[in-house]
Amino acid sequence: xxFVKLWKSSKHGSDIADFLDSIARxxxxxxxxxxxxxxxxxxxxxxxxRKQQREAEEKEKAAEEESRRAAAATELLRKQEAAKQREAEExxxxxxxxxxxxxxxxxxxxxxxxxxxxxxxxxxxxLQNGGGENVAKWKCVKWDAKKExxxxxxxxxxxxxxxLLPIIGQLxxxxxxxxxxxxxxx
Length: 186
Prior knowledge:
Elements: H1 2-9, H2 11-119, H3 124-128, E1 141-144, E2 149-154, E3 161-162, E4 176-178, E5 184-185
């Protein structure tokens, strides 16, 4: 014990103790620096992760926005295509309607004549008079080739009977109707 007391009290002993204290403080400072570096590295890693997460979120938002734009563009294209199809269908229907009107004009006079002849007691064979579907060759009918309409009916003395139907009004180009000599006509 005396030796330890002497050693501590001796000049060399206090130098050694100071040296050991300085080593301990140095080690403590190094440990503190190491902990500080670890905290900084951890903070840096956290910051990097946050940055990566923000970038990922931004990319995801950009992708969602692009997806919304693409969906909106697709919807717009779909609507435009549907509108074009509707317009095409309407145009086809319009053209078909015009064709039907033309056909009806061509055939409506024929149909009216057929109905009139039957209502007045005559058959199709009598009306067509061997002319088939060519109205210009039908019995006592004058056909205007330019207008493609019936302009004159001369069914005088054909033994017609029955009632003249109101559909005769559909013969819009009819200029002359002669039915004299038919006793049973009302």
